[in-house]
Write a structure and sequence with these properties.
An eleven-stranded mixed sheet has the order 1-2-8-7-6-5-4-3-9-10-11. The chain is an alpha/beta fold. The protein is built from 13 helices and eleven strands. The longest helix has 17 residues. Helices cover 35% and strands 14% of the residues. A hairpin with a 4-residue loop joins strand 9 and strand 10. It is globular. Helix 5 packs parallel to helix 6 and helix 6 packs across helix 8. It binds iron/sulfur cluster (SF4).
């Protein structure tokens, strides 16, 4: 893997299993605690207890909503047929209704949910009402509201909307330091537009006198971009709050054409804590114990017929938790193959 030769950055964060390397001049969790105060500290304490199996919260502390199955890019690292197939012949993308997401947020925040995200196989900024959902979530008691995006639709108006809505973390996937590499790594995207959107977001946040959302730029190292990591970090280190450096190798180990030359980060060991603290609700209402894409076969239930409370206490997730506490041979197949297992 390319060298990390950027002087002011150091490894920070709680990704003890090293799926990603978080680099920053200041710990992003400390920044969030500074801005969000005691509510954030309490929620992170609970997170830590769940992550280390000391307790199981009565409701997932974090829920991801894949509100619709729609993306504006066609990236080769995307594990889903979505990138290749698109949605030809489909007038409207498959989607959860806004009111359904708000109902899920009401249920969650009443029972201890403190964090939300928009994980899954989609681009959240393709959903116009997203800032409204973020604002409602924050009003209901969500402390940490995070969003991953490819940044193409992050224009000035959207940046202002997201800052005002109370988003706490914005994570933009970049994966390149040059337009040439970006065109291969993120086909359909415009590198110049991305860079101006990132700078525009920073300007909008400053204009509103806010420190949140903190901004993370992400770089997934593949064979396509591995020579550009150092340049990417140097270009942005004085501007953004932190970086996540990941390494491609999670989705199809039998097709390693995109693996970096030095190979992916080593597969993590240890017991997965995802089902102790989070759930993902997909666009069709089905629910999985994690936002890791290799775990999408672990369907736990469907919010159209069960509440999230029932799903969280249900036999299916209990069986997965029990299996993950045992030897690897007892884990679900998706977990045996999974290289995420976030701590
Ligand atoms: S091991 Fe992977 S697939 Fe299984 S629950 Fe954890 S993150 Fe999800």
């Amino acid at each position: 893997m390319a060298e990390l030769s950027v002087s002011e950055l150091s490894e920070v964060g709680t990704d003890s299993l090293k799926v990603s390397r978080f680099l920053a001049a200041q710990d992003p969790l400390a920044l969030l605690a500074q801005e969000l105060g005691v509510k954030f500290r309490l929620y992170r304490d609970e997170w830590e207890r769940a992550r280390t199996f000391q307790s199981l919260p009565p409701f997932p502390l974090h829920v991801d909503y894949e509100i619709q199955l729609k993306c504006d890019l066609r990236c080769p690292i995307c594990p889903n047929g979505l990138a290749q197939k698109g949605h030809k012949g489909q007038k409207e993308p498959l989607a959860l209704k806004k009111d359904a997401v708000i109902a899920l947020l009401k249920e969650g925040t009443a029972q201890g949910q403190r964090s939300m995200g928009f994980g899954g196989l989609w681009e959240p900024l393709t959903y116009a009402e997203l800032p409204e959902i973020v604002a409602v979530g924050r009003e209901l008691g969500i402390v940490d509201a995070m969003l991953n995006t490819n940044g193409q639709l992050l224009d000035r108006a959207k940046s202002l909307e997201l800052v005002k809505a109370g988003l706490t973390r914005l994570m933009v996937s970049v994966d390149a330091a040059t337009a040439k590499t970006y065109a291969i790594a993120r086909p359909g995207g415009d590198f110049g537009l991305l860079e101006s959107n990132i700078l525009g977001f920073l300007a909008a946040r400053e204009e509103l006198g806010r420190k949140l959302p903190i901004l993370r730029l992400s770089f997934c190292v593949t064979r396509l971009n591995e020579g550009e990591l150092g340049r990417f970090l140097a270009k942005w280190e004085k501007k953004v709050d932190f970086f996540s450096v990941q390494s491609y190798g999670r989705f199809d180990p039998k097709a390693p054409a995109l693996f970096p030359k030095n190979g992916p980060f080593p597969a993590p060991g240890g017991r997965c804590a995802q089902p102790q603290k989070r759930l993902l609700v997909r666009h069709d209402g089905t629910t999985t114990p994690c936002c890791d894409l290799s775990g999408l076969s672990l369907t736990l239930g469907d919010v159209k017929t069960e509440s999230l409370t029932e799903i969280w206490a249900g036999a299916r997730i209990q069986k997965i938790r029990a299996a993950l506490a045992g030897p690897k041979a007892s884990w679900p197949k998706a977990c045996q193959a999974c290289q995420a297992k976030y701590g």
